[in-house]
Amino acid sequence: MDTVHHPTGSASAWDDSATQSAWQKLFTFAVVGQILWPAVCIGAFVLMILVGRWAMWVMLPVVVYALYRSFLQRQYIVAAVQARRILKVYPWQTHKTPESGIGQIPGAKLGDVWLAFPNPDRPDDGVHIILHGHARSAWWRRRLGRGYETEKTAQVAEIWFAGDPRFAGVIAVPGPKRLFVLYQLAGLNVRTDGERSASPEALERARRAGVRLPT
Q: Is the peptide bond before 176 cis (omega within 30 degrees of 0)?
């Protein structure tokens, strides 16, 4: 695996003022969207009724999309809150051209984009973590796992990661910018032979970061 260092020198990513600014931007956009999209949905629906049937074909797609985004915004707010809890526990680590791919790993569906980061308890052992998510994952999906270099893939030649890939984490491009939460659907993601089993300290740290683990 690649050599890891802490770009901000802070005990936790949250101690860095630039990280707090990036998170505030993420959270603000999520909250504004939660207000804006329902208003657009209601306004388009009212306009569709007032103007008449002919406007239905124009406004109905707007209503449907705004309704979809209204439900989606809640996920953005939850993700922002989760990101804050993770950033308060783990420091940033930089990874130069981390391993990534599309599909072809256990648990990945066709088209799933993944990254691999070192296991904190066994640094030579890489742990795959899939980019589950929503529309905001599109920026990352267009740049990771391609297997060849383009202008877009060069934008993720260095990735900041805060977290434990066995549980959850936050990725960003240097700055940090483009904060995005990663998480394991299967929880610990450990092999039956225990090669990736987490230490008690790692489990406690994950719980403090908001990861729900079995007792």
A: yes
